[in-house]
Write a structure and sequence with these properties.
flat, Kinesin_motor_dom_sf, 16 helices, 11-stranded mixed sheet, Kinesin, 18 strands, cytoskeleton, 62% helix, 759 residues, alpha+beta, 3-stranded antiparallel sheet, microtubule binding
């Protein structure tokens, strides 16, 4: 029993090993079959691709075999070429023979045209022969290339057939190997059926071992059954692969038959093309014979006409030589003519340039002379001079079409500017126009002559006019780093005073006032809110003065800065939609210069009125409400009164309404003919302010046409006073009270203390 148990164990192990081996073989066989099926599919796809390529090659050959017509044409052209060469040689021989004979010239020139036509025909035949040679060479090359391609296609076809035969042989061998492997696998499992042995068991342990062995044997038999089932499935797969291979063989045979049929069709088409080629050659030959007959007839006519060609040829040769000489000399004549023409044109251009430069120089000189004469005429007539200044475009103007620039300037005349209003250009002529890039220094250079005349005893008035936000306050006051006309005027006066200090004694005093809501206020007084009145001087001179207006003497630039700072603090300014720091009042800076010539005792008194008018504004655009609205109404009313005064002065009316407004009443002396007056009109260049700019420029033109009459100098001879009397003398001009020397000294001391405290 133990021996049999051991034998059964060994048999069991062997069966397990065989089972594992069979499983591995089955797995390997499955992989091989799968790979073989994939290979067969790939081969089928490659055969299909090859058949498609061969079909494409056959179609291409069919299209290329159409070259047989070209071969026919080539042969025809070759025959015609040979015939034309022979005819050309014959014609050339006859021409040489005719030249040798040197017959008498024919006087009948009617054959010249026919001779020319024959020569042209001869040259045409030669060109056709050359073209035929070229076409013949091209056709030979094409035929050679097509023959080579056909040989290559045949070689490729043979190679593909050989490869296909080899592939079929290889597939058949693999199929036979697979069948042999399956047969060997079928024969192996039969040994397992007869391994079971009957063993008598004598003990319980042996019985138990035997039962276990039988159960294991049964398990192994089940495994063997499963393997057999797997083998059956593999056989079915093998049969399906064999069917697939058979189908592929059938497809290959079908493709071969189709290829043979295509080859037969190609041969038939080639034969048909060959027949067509022969037929075309015969037709071309017949046409060539007909043309040959016509050429022979033409040659007969040529032979008759060539006898008359020698004199015509001699004449043509002579004319040709003359033309050749003229053509050879033509470039030299052309270059010489062009050179002389360039020289004349350059000289004319230089003369025109010099003439233009001279005219431009004369024009500018005349323009300057005209301006000088105009200024002198304005001075003699007493006209109000008008300067215009255009502010630059700022970020507050915004962006878009409303912020576009509508103001342009004349490049040749600095007194003209153009405004684009509603699509039309409107031009304005003033005495001087400053563009946006003009500096404060450039503006002051134009007005400093008026400022210095104040020292000589003349009354001068400079006032800025324009809409709110146009830059009036900037022009008159400026900034600390870039001061305006007010501070520069005082600095210039101090400079002139220092230059005349050897012969003259001068005293400069400053007053500052504003007109706010038709109320006159003292900006340098102790009570800036106190209202002042304008009255006539009691001396009977007819001039105006302001009782109680503070007058502060300045002796240095530091005093000027303190006065300006104190007056600026008291002036009324507010923020509106059009201007962040809009002036809500008319500001008036009165500078009085009193001088005394120590050698002659001549005393002069000059006044410089610098006026910064409040800007005109539209209430709807500025967004003024409440007190701002009332201020705007008073400002517009006073500016309207100023326009009425200008209109009355321009039309020379008997009554001028100066008293309609505090502004015009205060400017009466400056606008009534006893003052040098300059108006600085400020305009905005952007499109949204076009209406206000147009109104300001029209008002400026009206002001420019006003004649005030000649200006008189305020000078008188008096006894030589002391410096203290000069400093404490009461003001005799308009717009000031007449305090005693003690009162003036006390007021000046209090104002100086106030300015020092505020500074």
């Amino acid at each position: 029993v133990m021996a049999s148990m051991a034998h059964l164990q060994e048999e069991k192990l062997r069966l397990q090993e065989e089972l594992l081996g069979l499983q591995e073989k089955l797995a390997a066989q499955e992989n091989n079959e799968l790979s073989r099926s994939l290979q067969l599919q790939g081969q089928v796809e490659s055969l299909k691709a090859k058949l498609l390529e061969q079909a494409q090659e056959i179609s291409r050959l069919r299209s290329e075999l159409g070259g047989t017509d070209a071969e026919k044409h080539r042969d025809l052209l070759a025959a015609e070429n040979e015939r034309l060469q022979q005819e050309m040689k014959a014609c050339e021989g006859e021409l040489r023979e005719l030249r040798r004979q040197q017959q008498a010239p024919c006087r009948d020139c009617a054959h010249l045209q026919e001779n020319a036509g024959l020569q042209e025909r001869l040259s045409q035949l030669q060109r056709e022969a050359e073209e035929a040679r070229a076409k013949l060479a091209e056709l030979d090359l094409e035929v050679q290339q097509k023959t080579n391609r056909l040989a290559e296609v045949e070689l490729r076809l043979k190679d593909s057939l050989a490869e296909r035969a080899e592939e079929e042989e290889r597939l058949s061998r693999r199929l036979r190997d697979s069948q042999e492997t399956i047969a060997s696998l079928k024969s192996q499992p039969q040994q397992i059926k007869y391994i079971i042995k009957t063993v008598e068991v004598e003990s319980a342990k042996a019985k138990q071992a035997l039962c276990e062995s039988q159960s294991r044997n049964q398990y192994l038999q089940e495994q063997v059954g499963m393997q057999r089932q797997v083998l059956k499935e593999m056989e079915q797969q093998l049969q399906s692969s064999q069917k697939t291979a058979a189908q592929l063989r059938a497809q290959i045979m079908m493709y071969e038959a189709e290829l043979e049929r295509a080859h037969g069709q190609m041969l038939e088409e080639m034969q048909a093309m060959e027949e067509e080629k022969n037929r075309a050659i015969e037709e071309a030959f017949s046409r060539a014979q007909v043309e040959m007959k016509a050429v022979h007839e033409n040659l007969a006519g040529v032979r008759t006409n060539l006898l008359t060609l020698q004199p015509a040829l001699r004449t043509l040769t002579h004319d040709y030589n003359n033309l050749k000489r003229q053509v050879r000399d033509f470039p030299l004549l052309l270059q010489e003519t062009l050179r002389s023409a360039r020289a004349e044109i350059g000289q004319a251009i230089e003369e025109v340039h010099s003439t233009n430069r001279e005219l431009l120089r004369k024009y500018r000189r005349e323009l300057q002379l005209r301006k000088k004469c105009h200024n002198e005429l304005v001075r003699l007539k007493g006209n109000i001079r008008v300067f215009g200044r255009v502010r630059p475009i700022t970020k507050e103007d915004g962006e878009g079409p409303e912020a576009a620039n509508v103001v342009t300037f004349d490049a040749d005349d600095d007194a003209v500017l153009h405004l684009l209003h509603k699509g039309k250009q409107v031009s304005f002529e003033l005495d001087k126009v400053f563009p946006p890039q003009a500096s404060q220094e450039e503006v002051f250079q134009e007005v400093q002559a008026l400022v210095t005349s104040c020292i000589d005893g003349y009354n001068v008035c400079i006032f800025a006019y324009g809409q709110t936000g146009a830059g009036k306050t900037y022009t008159m006051e400026g900034t600390a780093a870039n001061p305006g006309i007010n501070q520069r005027a005082l600095q210039l006066l101090f400079s002139e005073v220092r230059g005349k200090a050897a012969d003259w004694d001068y005293a400069i005093s400053v007053s500052a006032a504003e007109i706010y809501n038709e109320a006159l206020r003292d900006l340098l007084g102790k009570e800036p809110q106190e209202k002042l009145e304008i009255k006539l001087c009691p001396d009977g001179s007819g001039q105006l003065y302001v009782p109680g207006l503070t007058e502060f003497r300045v002796q240095s630039v530091e005093d000027i800065n303190k006065v300006f700072e104190f007056g600026h603090v008291n002036r009324a300014t507010e923020c509106t939609n059009l201007n962040e720091h809009s002036s809500r009042s008319h500001a008036l800076l009165i500078i009085t210069v009193r001088g005394l010539d120590r050698s002659t005792g001549l005393r002069t008194t000059g006044k410089l009125n610098l006026v910064d008018l409040a800007g005109s504004e539209r209430v709807g655009r500025s967004g003024a409400e409440g007190s701002r609205l009332r201020e705007a109404q008073h400002i517009n009313k006073s500016l309207s009164a100023l326009g009425d005064v200008i209109y009355a002065l321009r039309s020379r009316q008997g009554h001028v309404p100066f008293r309609n407004s505090k502004l015009t009443y205060l400017l009466q002396d400056s606008l009534s003919g006893d003052s040098k007056t300059l108006m600085m009109v400020q305009v905005s260049p952007v499109e949204k302010n076009t209406s206000e700019t147009l109104c300001s420029l029209k008002f400026a033109e009206r002001v420019r046409s006003v004649e005030l009459g000649p200006v008189s100098r305020k000078a008188e001879l008096a006894s030589w006073p002391s410096q203290e009397q000069l400093e404490g003398d009461a003001p005799s001009g308009r717009g000031h009270a007449s305090p005693s020397p003690g009162q003036f000294s006390g007021r000046a001391t209090s104002i100086r203390r106030k300015l020092q405290t505020s500074g």
